[in-house]
Amino acid sequence: MKRIVVVALCMAFCIVLSAREIVKVACVGNSITYGIGVADPDKESYPAQLQHMLGEEYVVQRFGKPGATLLNKGHRPFMKQQEFRDALNFAADVVVIHLGVNDTDPRDWPNYRDAFITDYRALIDSFRVANPKCRILIARLTPIADRHPRFESGTRDWHGEIQLAIETIARNAQVQLIDFHSLLYSYPYMLPDAVHPDKEGAAILAKTVYEGITGDFGGLQMPEIYTDNMVLQHGRPLTVRGKADAGQKVTVSIDKKKFQTMTGLDGKWMVNISPLKAGGPYTLMVSDEKKTLVYNNVLAGEVWLCSGQSNMEFHLNWSVTAEQDVPQATNDNIRFYDMKARWRTDAVEWDDSVLDSLNHLQYYKNTHWTVCSPEMAGVFSAVAYYFGKKMQDSLQIPIGLICNAIGGSPTEAWVDRRTLEYCFPAILRNWKQNDFIQDWVRGRAALNIKKTACILQRHPYEPCYLYESGIRPLEQFPIRGVIWYQGESNAHNREAHEKLFKLLVDSWRKNWGDEELPFYFVQLSGMDRPSWTWFRDSQRKLMMEIPYTGMAVCSDKGDSLDVHPKQKKEVGERLAAWALNKTYGYKHITPSGPLYKSVSFHKGAAYVSFDYAEGLSSSDGMPVRTFEVAGEDGVFYPAQALIENGKMKVWNDQVNDPRIVRYGWQPFTRANLVNSAGLPASTFQTE
Question: In whole angstroms, what is the distance from residue 269 CA to residue 530 CA?
Fold first, then answer.
């Protein structure tokens, strides 16, 4: 009897097993699939972690061959390896392929690139022969970090070309594309040898495959910037995007209109809603078949991103006019989204928990949209507040201000990684000992991360960091333009900054998909720092070279000893003047003080012409001062200056044949030339 019971139980168990369909998953690839880079591939490789995520209804096998190429004429073709034959014999229901990283070898891609798509299609067809019902997922390549020894000699470019080829295959071979690149790209510390993900990186790959197989992306999600009280950009088609489980119908409702779409296999969705009329309040609803998100008290108006370093971060409470202005800062039509750092970059050593958070890009505090009130405005950016107030007063529509400014941050920290990899890779290399980066910046970073044991420890001042932690998470939230106050941490090398600033503007315009995105910035004020004369003039020239930009001059509001001058109202309002004139067409508003245009020489004198020169005068009723002239020898002498017919006549009796003119050429200047709008002239030197 006992034996009969055991047999019966065994038969019942077998029936249960046969009733449950076990899905076989084959993970095919190279050393990354095998698990090079983790301590125990059998437990920590991405296929091993995937098995844990999928559970007992799946059997995951890894078929990774270190060094394998996709190319059949490569130095180690995967299709000629035992791992390939074993994978075919497994006859998987789901095949995940990640190959191509080793094809960036100079032995392979330069010679055989034309066969890549054909060879990849042949690999796919082989698995379909082994199991005609199999589902195939192919992966975009994992990143190769700029630390790789062949990065600039070919790996960077060939890696990019292979990515494009893989995307072409996915579109045309009825296979599913998954992304092994994007989620790892911003975490270079997870690639200790520049190629192989560590255990944490392997977990990201496993989760990516899990989501691709199951379609489970964690349900309906919106970017964190979507909250009650937000301002949406009005007057233009508005792109709203988010995530949800694969195959879900998503409905976006606002202003009595509904817009619907379906999520893709990657869990992403996007809808374009009709232009909103300025005003409100509106209610925005986003729903799928399982969940509804509701955002209340939403306004439509003009949205501006306010960014830079400490002079943009500088609170309204600290400004010289705070006592008068803060109590009056109540305005329902101005809204703030204030992105503050969890840890200021003060002269301290951060502990392990901070350092770990930094590596995970968890640098900003959680925040939400708030209505302008004395309490909120007092701890908001003074420059941004005064900019927004003038804009709201002039336009009479809601204004949304996103402040994302970090004290001491250099320009390179705000530029995306891909741009620097292709256009300025030298600044990425060994950044903590890199002369392109200011000594003070490197020194403060070294102090903050002194306790780290991670050789690839990240810091907010690192190239790319603030873009990856603070710009990318905005998820291209629609904005009208940018105001920017930064440069103090790059003034040591104006030549590098000239390149970086152009890359910054181009990077952000590409991110928001707007080649004409307005970008209005502040010229450095006056301070007793020797390099600032040249840097200010460099900023003036950058404005002339980059379209859709404007520069607010504030050398008259500087402080010889304080890098944080407290007169912020004029700075914010001067930025607003640029926006009102150039972006909104308010031609009666003068956007700038006099800007050097040209110079001519006649009878021992220089005649300097300016743009925005109407009503040239001195700001204090005294003679115009700080002009200098030099002859061919380049030796400058203080010059006399008179206003004649809308130009400046400049001369010195000791310079018979002047060739160069400069104005306000002191780090802290008392230059006093203004126009009829009372706006100061930019300091300059003629060529």
Answer: 52
β-pairing verdict for 627-630 and 660-663: antiparallel
Which of 178, 194, 214 delimits the end of a domain? 214
The pTM assigned to this predicted structure is 0.95
Say if 606 falls within a structural domain: yes
**Pairwise CA distance, residues 469 & 401, whole Å:** 19
Rounded distance, CA 461 to CA 447, Å? Answer: 12
Enumerate the β-bridge partners of residue 77.
69
Element (H, E) at 242: strand 238-243
- Strand locations in 288-416 (E): 292-308, 331-338, 369-372, 399-405
Q: What is the per-residue DSSP string for 118-182?
A: HHHHHHHHHHHHH-TT-EEEEEEPPP--TTSTTIIIIIHHHHHHHHHHHHHHHHHTT-EEEESSH
Do 523 and 350 meet the contact criterion of CB atoms below 8 Å apart? no
| CATH at 132 | 3.40.50.1110
Q: Give the domain range for residue 57.
A: 19-214
Residues in the chain, total: 687
Q: What is the pLDDT of residues 56-89, one digit of tens each?
A: 999 999 999 999 999 999 999 999 999 999 999 9
Can you say whether residue 457 is alpha, beta or left, with left for phi > 0 and alpha for psi between -120 and 50 degrees? beta
**Which among 683, 351, 356 has a CA at the least distance from the CA of 534?**
683
Write out 578-626 in H/E/C secondary structure: HHHHHHCCCCCCCCCCCEEEEEEEECCEEEEEEECCCCCEECCCCCCCC
447-493 pLDDT per residue, tens: 999 999 999 999 999 999 999 999 999 999 999 999 999 999 999 99
Q: How many domains does the chain have?
A: 2
Cα dihedral value 456, 458, 462, 467, nearest 10 = 120
* Nearest partner of 666 among 559, 565, 491, 530, judged by Cα: 530
Distance between CA atoms of 404 and 586, rounded to whole angstroms? 27
3-state helix, strand, coil in the chain (%, to 5): 35, 25, 40
More confident residue, 147 or 10: 147
* Residue ending a domain, choose from 214, 231, 256: 214
What percentage of the chain reaches a pLDDT higher than 90? Answer: 96
Residues 173 and 71: their CA atoms lie apart, in Å, by 17
Confidence (pLDDT) at 14: 38
Q: Coil, strand, or helix at residue 9?
A: helix
Q: Give residue 405's identity as a one-letter amino acid code.
A: A
Q: Where are the beta strands (DSSP E) in 526-594?
A: 549-552
